[in-house]
Amino acid sequence: MTAPAFTLSDLSGEYTLDPSHTRIGFVARHAMVTKVRGAFNEFEGSAVLDGDNPEKSSAKVVIKAVSIDTRNEQRDGHLRTNDFLDPETYPEITFVSTGVVVIDENNYELIGDLTVKDVTKPVTIPFAFEGAAKDPFGNVRVGFEGAVTINRKDFGITWNAALETGGVLVSDKITLEFEVSAIKNS
Q1: What is the pLDDT of residues 55-100, one digit of tens each?
Q2: What range(s) does the Lipid/polyisoprenoid-binding YceI-like domain occupy (predicted)?
Q3: Fewer CB within 10 Å, N or C, the chain?
């Protein structure tokens, strides 16, 4: 016997991001020929879902900039300098939603303010609702996936190196990726 599916109204409530099942990552073009992928390993976030009026939902995420991880210690060390994130001076990257646009029952645009190195810019992140389930511990869990491309120079991250063959070492465009699993607060 299968459990009945959740309705959007069933999902209304406050949620906490599950860091062990959520990935906040990024992709940057490197040397104009390949992509470097990385993630932030330390963050916390919350959301309020309004199943009856999804446009009234909201979310907030706080990322520890020092937790950047590209699986390369030398590169990560450089990303932690003032050339890039400078987490000693700017320890947090934040996103605070300001609105939600409903595209259809499974697709949304989350509008909000992204702050990197004390520079705040509006961004719109397309998100897909991936589903809801009751986990083995009795928690209601929801999943969302989204991505948005930003220009790092808009946030004061301008360092680069010219390549002998033309072009630059690091792309200006960075894709931020979100694979979110959130647990409904009891």
Answers
A1: 999 999 999 999 999 999 999 999 999 999 999 999 999 999 999 9
A2: 14-183
A3: N
Domains and CATH numbers, the chain: 14-184 (2.40.128.110)
pLDDT of residue 3: 52
Phi, psi of 72 (to 5 degrees): -145, 110
Among 16, 61, 15, 14, CA closest to 42: 61
- Whole-angstrom CA distances from 142 to 55, 134, 178, 181 are 17, 9, 13, 6
Number of Cα atoms under 13 Å in the Cβ half of residue 56: 8
- SS3 of the chain: CCCCCCCCHHHCEEEEECHHHCEEEEEEEECCCEEEEEEECCEEEEEEECCCCHHHCEEEEEEEHHHEECCCHHHHHHHCCCCCCCCCCCCEEEEEEEEEEEEECCEEEEEEEEEECCEEEEEEEEEEEEEEEECCCCCEEEEEEEEEEEEHHHHCCCCCCECCCCCECEEEEEEEEEEEEEEECC
- Cβ contact 108:54 at 8 Å: yes
**Percent of the chain having pLDDT more than 70?**
98
